[in-house]
Design a protein that fits this description.
Strand order of the largest sheet: 6-5-4-7-8
Structural class: alpha/beta
Order of helices and strands: EEHEEHEHEHHEHE
Number of helices: 6
Radius of gyration: 17 Å
Largest sheet: 5 strands, parallel
Length: 191
Amino acid sequence: FIELFIPHKNADDRGAKRWFTLSSSPTEEDLPITTKIFPERPSSFKMALYSLEPGILLNMASPMGDFVLPKDTSIPLTFVAGGIGCTPFRSILKYIKDAQEKRDISMLYAVGELEYAAFLKIFEDLGDNLKLLDTSVDGHLDSSKILKFSNNDSGFYYISGQEPMVESIASDLIKNGIGKSGLHGDFFPNY
C-alpha cells in the first residue's frame, strides 16, 4: 500500500492524505489504485482525486506492507474480500498469472450488489474456486461461510476489506480453530 497526499482547498475533517492498496502487479509498469467514491457523501480528498488531470505530479509514500504471498507455493490460500477490499487480490492474482505460478487458491468475494464487483475478469480465472456473495441477498460475510466454502485446514487466510469486517472475521476464524499465524489482514480505514 501507499500513502497519497493531495493538497486541496477547503479540505474536510478527513484531511489531505489517504492510504491506498496498489491494485497493480509487480509485473505491470503502472501503479494504479482503486477506490470507491460515495456520491451521497464524497470527501474533499476523493473529489480532489477524481478531478486530477493526467500528468499531475503527486506526493506518495514508498510502497510498504506485509500482505504478500508465502514463498512456499504448496501452501493452500483462501482469499476473503469485502467490497473494495478485492484490490490486493487483483494484484496478487495478476502476478501469479504473469509469473505462471501454480497455487491452490480459493476466493470468497462479498459485495453489496454484484453489479459493483470489481476485477471479475481476473477473479473468474479461479473458476469453481471463486464464490461471489451478494450481501443484499446472501447476508453478511462470516467465518462459517468462509470455512464451508474454503475447506482449508492447513493453509493461509488473507482477509481484506473494511477494518471492522477484517477484525471480526479474523477473530471468528481463530475461535473456529484457525491459528493466528495463518491469518493475514489488510483493512481499509475510513470506508
